[in-house]
Design a protein that fits this description.
A: mainly alpha, 13 helices, B: D-Maltodextrin-Binding Protein, domain 2, eleven-stranded mixed sheet, 21 strands, globular, BPD_transp_1_N (chain A), transport (chain A), MetI-like_sf (chain A), transmembrane helix (chain A), membrane (chain A)
Amino acid sequence: MSGLRSFVARRLLLGALQTVAVVLLVFALTEALPGDAAVALAGDQPDPARIAAIREAMHLDRPAHERLADWAAGLLHGDLGTSLASGRPVGQYVSDGFGPTLLLATLTVALLVPIGFGLGVLAARHEGRLVDQLISSVTLVVYAMPEFALGVLLVTVLALRLGWLPPTAVGYGTDLLGHPSALVLPVLVLLSRPVCSLSRLVRAGMIDALASPYVAQARRYGVSGARIRYAHALPGALAPAAQQLARTVDWLLCGVIVVEALYVIPGLGTVLLNAVAERDVPVVQGLAVLFGVLTVVLNLGADLVAHRLAPRTGVAA
Amino acid sequence: MHDERFPGPHRRGFLAATGAATLGALALTGCGGSGTERSDAKGDSTPRRGGRLRAAFAGGGGSETLDPHLANLFADAARAKAQYDKLADYGADLSAQPRLAEKWEANKTLDRWRITLRRATFHDGRPVTAADVLYSYRRIADPGQAFRARASLEPIDLDASRATGERGIEFVLKRPTAEFPNVLAAFGAYIVPEGAGAAGGFDKKPIGSGPFRFVSFTPGRSAVFRRYDDYWDGAPHLEELEFVVANEESARVNALLGGQVEYAHELNPTTARAHESRGQIGIVRLRNSAMQAFCMKTDRAPFDDKRVREAFFLIADREELVDGALSGAGTVGNDLFGKGYEYYADGLPQREQDLDRARALLKQAGAEKLKVTLDASAVAAGFVEAAGIFRDQAKKAGVTIEVKLGSKDSYWADILDNGSLCCYRSGAMPIEAHISQRLLTDSTTNATKWKHKDFDALYQQAQSTRDKAERAAVHERMQRRLYAEGGFLIWGFADWILGTARNVKGVATEAPANTLDWARFDKVWLA
């Protein structure tokens, strides 16, 4: 087990370094963007004196390395800093946006896993036959559809034409659980692409596994078909799927900007979009740290699962 | 990639400006306004009390605030208007109309103004006094802050100004200012109770003297207000008013169609066209809301030659620009700001495309085969389209225009001093404010670099002229000069488009964005 422990330690260290690198990169890139928060805030009234005053009020007149150092020092105490645009703590932005995004991600994953795996196994079982062809072509079509287009289509048909569901979650704020019908469309859109990629991966993994020597051996021993499929073949197919799933969760948590914008869900994607437009560097940085940490942790978890499920494939650190 | 997905109008709405805004437009509503001011034109209902109206605006996310002096976005302005009052506000022709100030009076030299406040109360019952007004203005003018209205209040010598009684104020000005009431109506010049600016005061329990009182506020999501029964201008019809934030135009439209909101601000012309005849929702077009222009820098080649500027005026096919860049939702411009506003020189002939004359002028100026870079950006709806159309029009006159797309977020600062030709737009403000902010030698946002001592002198003359007719004559002289050789090629005025649910009545139809009746909910009711 010590091998595993050092693997985890190495991955965590690497992850921390990656997070730091992401934050530095974000800082450098935001600095390199034309204009700063003062310019963005001044908008169509770019009176130079006013921009200078805003800059001074925001302490943007200090050199970049000083601002970065201050911010990093705060971070060590768990302080993400304060927003340039509003003066409110960044932690509050993050916690406000995290709730809706987490809710959407949880619901999506809760549905994604059974549907994705179910469809994948179903298709693999009927490889080459009608069910397989149907699943494969439908998933391909849905996968090819941009989320924005699919979202608009669903709103038009299900919400506006048929009136079954509310078209947006406008005005509900973070109380989305109190209005569950408003969650249906966003979750459908979020599900659409991951379900397709996941089921196709599971299908391919299953077919490979079913054709593998160890399954053939199990068959020769007279192990039942269902047992072969779920105890022997599926775990082998799970490893790539678990990693794909981690990437999906990552994508969901890091704010799905299109879906949030389309359905007016005030999650992390919306926070990020506003912060970038306002050149609100501390908020962007705070989110970069959060996203960096999430990505590292989730991928580590996925690699461990893959390691556990298919030790023979060997997991690269 | 996101630029394609989030096209168009711009969370950072273009708020006209420090100065002012006007009402001046006529618009049709679904229920058949016939040029009358409000959407209940046919009188199919009398105002009914009660109900909650939900209004969707594009907003600024978590950094939104209820501090009315920080208002920067349309959503901020609409919330501030519900909760606070200004001393004056703009009527449909962008002339100042008294609000909290019951009357104003100038001395002979127009540099001292006596204001009398009307009897009004804040939401906690305290009367609005001269001390509150002076506190508010001093807060806005605080040099340590960067409030948008500060530049507008610049003519006032606040140290010398004083209260002459509970409801009387004497403003001492640094120079004669005939249009001083415009200053009182300036964007963001709201009156707050004395001491209200103390730390965090506006976010917790803000108190104003406006038609609605504060209930709750979550930045970037929702703000709820309730009717203030003792409002001096009569209690609103609505019981409650909620502002919700939806940055995507499609989300605002969908929410309106789905019955989740009753009022959607800022719609696209294509959306308006699709729904205008269908009757499911009402479409309100606020005309003359946004000036659309190309801006030529008059201090550098090739536009330092006025023949080149005139040639460019003649290159523009304005109909084609309005149809193409504004999807037809607008009217053609005549190279002058403020169509339909007070002092607008409407006697000048409408400029038409004349390519032969343009070519001749360019030849005279030795600018044949001219090559110019046109700066544009997706910062405002129609900029990129307008740039492309104008490039094609210029080609016919032998001018090669190269369109350069710049960053959305720093566009306005970038074009102020750089380049020689750019896309430009502006919200409504009085013509006087447009001139003082953009066309005087010491103007802070002089994007055409129009700097002429004699023009400055004309402006000062207008501001020192007591008689209104004489003042109008001076304004006309200034505008004739700009029409002949100015730097603004003003090709159109865009409509500002709103959508309302069928049961919403009383929405003003002649109210360019930023004027008193725009986004004014105390006169609106639910039928």
